[in-house]
Design brief:
- The protein is built from 28 helices and 21 strands.
- By secondary structure, the protein is α+β, with helices and mostly antiparallel strands.
- Helix 21 crosses helix 23.
- The longest helix has 34 residues.
- The strands form 6 sheets. Strands 1, 2, 3, 4, 5 and 6 form a 6-stranded mixed β-sheet that branches. A 4-stranded mixed β-sheet has the order 13-15-14-16, with no helix packed on it. The chain has a 4-stranded antiparallel β-sheet with strand order 19-20-18-21.
Length: 746
């Protein structure tokens, strides 16, 4: 609108003076006709006329004519007088200083609040549609505008007022034969028509769609109109004539209480079905549609039988959604018949309960017509918001058009859990009720949330804990670098209302803690390497030798004190290599490996022996020896698969061996395999078991896989024991660890 403010002097008093004159006139005449002059509509028109006369809206319309057109549309819907009166007051408010105060004083707080809400709604709706949004995000932005329009309006009469206003604007463009701006027509089609659809206000919905279609696709509009080969008035007359025939048929069948409703399908709906389902015009069977509502299911089938007896059914166009309801619970009988002029007419037959469910329940008309996957409008209509609309819609239809209350102190049902706020570029951000500027920042980008340090709401700096409200514009003040505050997670400070935001803050601190743990572990490992004079050793190579995928994995378990540095020391200080010609050295090596101290080669003294790594024998395992080339006798467990394979190739190398007298300090390496459900702290808990059992772990290899159990950890621990008899108690203790499924010797 073009805004020209009236001063608060004598000119601003003109509308109120006119109201006073009207009051005096009514009191003087003291008859019913005079009292009628005092109704809301007349009082509002008298108030608005001197303000709107000669004014033009930004569309070029005459302001007073537009207000009268909106009031007429609302009257045609049966709206309350108070709502029709608001049509004048909303536009008059644009030409008054302090309009909320003036209108509240003249008409009461109810009208004042309605006008204020409507004006604010117009401002934010216009800002949203003009936002610089990428093309691929435009559909999401449009859907958020739809939701915001309802969520912002505590009094849903405001939405109805906006719908009627937009319809009047399109009517004016059509009557004046002026080109309607494409942005306005597309907004009408994508935002206002779906809103009317969702609220069940079909009269506005179909006319918004047809007029928008006419301006956006004039060639297609004229083509569909020519195909129909009759004007809308004629089509409506034909529908009404067929409806009368149908009523008489049902009365003759004993269904006197049946209701028959009918209307022709409008042009945009026909074109959309042809485009969406790739149909020729002749294949669109529901250009004319009837709805029959009866008392019970038996009467549904009785009515169907009579319809098929009287009219010729079209093959392949019958659906029984009573016997087999749609997945959303929708029930009805659908059939298509031909009238006397051989024109197709779709007939839907249902009970009143089915009709109530289809109109107001989860299976409401807008939900399945706008459903994404199987529909053809490209909009998904599933989710908590849509369920709230379905719940609110019945109450709206019953109360909205006849709502006479003056106050707006009660919120519309179902829209209190979300708010819709704007970026400085007018993109809409959807937040939970109570959301703060920090929630807003995290909704835009995780990094922006981490660096958020302040916020401007509608241009004014506010504390970060301030709850935002629908329609506000939020600008984030951020640092160049940095992270969130731990205080943000304190529920008493009310810094975050979104669970998604809280998860992002926790993830940041978890990552920070992990980085600090890795840094501690790295420092400890590097100090050890410096002490051992091995600083040239590549850390990734060291980690691989110890059974880790990367150095960071090694540092993390060391930083958590889950892995002993002694394991690294043992790797860096290998036992000296024994030479066969040096008997004393052979004995020393044998003791170090646990071989010479416990393994005797039958008939041979002091022969070099070593324990095979493939099977890791330890007393009292049954063992056998295999003579190697240059490495003495390899000691295997008798059931070792590798030994069996080598003996099949060269059986002459197999010799008899036995365990000798045990030595008190002899230790034997064994491999223990553990399979468990992967979780945080698993390696630490298993290491604690080995510590309690006083068993040294010299190596560990871990691998995380996804299998039928979910995320599973497969671990191989190399431990040192004095005897294999230690195994049963150790394995039993491992099975007590949470998540461990199996524990066995390899």
């Amino acid at each position: 609108m073009k805004t020209t403010h009236w001063p608060l002097g004598s000119e601003a008093a003109t509308p109120i003076m006119a109201l006073a004159d009207l009051q005096q006139q009514a009191e003087a005449q003291a008859d019913p006709q005079a009292e009628a002059l005092l109704n809301d509509i007349q009082r509002a028109r008298v108030f608005a006329q001197p303000l709107l006369a000669g004014r033009l809206l930004d569309t070029g319309e005459d302001a007073l004519g537009h207000a009268e057109g909106v009031a007429a549309i609302l009257a045609g819907l049966g709206a309350a007088h108070s709502l029709q009166a608001a049509a004048y007051l909303v536009y008059a408010a644009d030409f008054i200083q302090k309009p909320d105060e003036v209108i509240t004083r003249a008409f009461g707080p109810g009208h004042g609040a309605m006008v204020a809400h409507t004006r604010k709604l117009v401002q934010i709706q216009r800002a949203a549609m003009k936002a610089r949004v990428e093309e691929d995000a435009r559909a999401q932005q449009t859907e958020r505008v739809r939701k915001m329009l309802l969520a912002f309006s505590r009094d849903l009469r405001v939405v109805l007022l906006r719908l009627a206003s937009r319809l009047q604007t399109l009517r004016w463009h059509a009557a004046a034969k002026r080109d309607c701006p494409a942005l306005l027509a597309r907004e009408s089609l994508e935002v206002f028509a779906p809103l009317a659809n969702r609220l069940g206000i079909w009269q506005i919905k179909w006319e918004l769609e047809d007029l928008s279609f006419r301006f956006l696709e004039p060639e297609h509009y004229r083509h569909i109109a020519r195909l129909l080969d009759e004007r809308r008035v004629e089509r409506e007359a034909g529908v009404q004539a067929f409806a009368q025939q149908l009523r008489e048929l049902l009365v003759g069948a004993g269904l006197a209480g049946a209701q028959v409703q009918g209307r022709p399908k409008h042009l945009y709906s026909i074109w959309r079905k042809m485009q969406g389902k790739q149909l020729d015009f002749s294949q669109v069977m529901d250009v004319r549609a009837m709805r029959v509502i009866v008392q019970d299911v038996a009467q549904c089938y009785t009515a169907l039988a009579r319809v098929h007896e009287r009219f010729t059914p079209v093959d392949g166009e019958f659906d029984d959604y009573i016997a087999k309801p749609k997945p959303n619970g929708y029930q009805s009988l659908h059939t298509v018949v031909q009238d006397e002029s051989s024109r197709a007419v779709e007939i839907q037959i249902r009970t009143l309960a089915m009709h109530e469910h289809a109109e107001f329940g989860v299976a409401a008309h807008w939900a399945y017509k706008e459903a994404g996957a199987k529909g053809y409008a490209g909009v998904s209509a599933v989710g908590s918001f849509e369920e709230q609309v379905a719940q609110a819609r019945k109450a709206v239809l019953q109360q909205l058009l006849a709502w006479e209350r003056e106050a707006v102190d009660q919120a519309a049902p179902g829209f209190e859990d979300r708010i819709y706020v704007f970026t400085p570029q007018a993109a809409i951000v959807d937040l939970p009720a109570g959301g703060t500027a920090v929630d807003f920042a995290y909704a835009l980008h995780t990094d922006l949330g981490h660096r958020c340090r302040g916020a401007r709401v509608d241009g004014a700096m506010v504390p970060l804990s301030t709850p935002l409200q629908t329609g506000q514009t939020v600008e984030i003040v951020s640092a160049k670098e940095g992270g969130p505050s731990l205080d943000w997670l304190n529920p008493e400070l009310h810094m975050l209302a979104s669970a998604r935001s809280r998860a992002k803050v926790r993830a940041w601190f978890n990552t920070l803690e992990q980085a600090q743990t890795v840094a501690r572990g790295r420092e400890a490992v590097e100090r050890l390497l410096q002490r051992e004079g091995r600083t040239a050793l590549k850390l990734d190579d060291l980690a691989e030798q110890l059974g880790f995928k990367a150095a960071a994995d090694l540092f993390e378990v060391v930083g958590k004190d889950e892995y002993s540095l002694r394991n690294i020391e043992q790797l860096l200080r290998p036992a000296p290599v024994a030479r066969p010609e040096d008997e004393s050295l052979v004995l020393k090596r044998s003791k170090a490996e646990g071989a010479g101290s416990g393994v005797l080669v039958v008939g041979v003294d002091s022969l070099l022996t070593n324990l095979a790594r493939c099977c890791r024998p330890a007393p009292p395992d049954s063992i056998a020896g295999y003579v190697t080339r240059g490495r003495g006798v390899a000691i295997h467990r008798s059931d070792c698969n590798s030994l069996a394979h080598m003996v099949r190739q060269q059986p002459e190398r197999l010799i008899s061996v036995a365990w000798g007298a045990p030595s008190g300090d002899a230790l034997y390496p064994l491999d223990v395999q553990v399979e468990a459900a992967d979780r945080s702290g698993l390696l630490r808990d298993i290491s604690e078991v080995f510590a309690r059992e006083k068993i040294n772990v010299t190596g560990v290899k871990t691998q995380s896989l996804r299998d039928r159990h979910g995320a599973s950890a497969h671990m191989t621990f190399t431990v040192e024991v004095s005897s294999a008899q230690r195994l049963p108690s150790m394995l039993k203790a491992l099975l007590t660890v949470q998540g461990v499924r199996t524990a066995r010797r390899r």
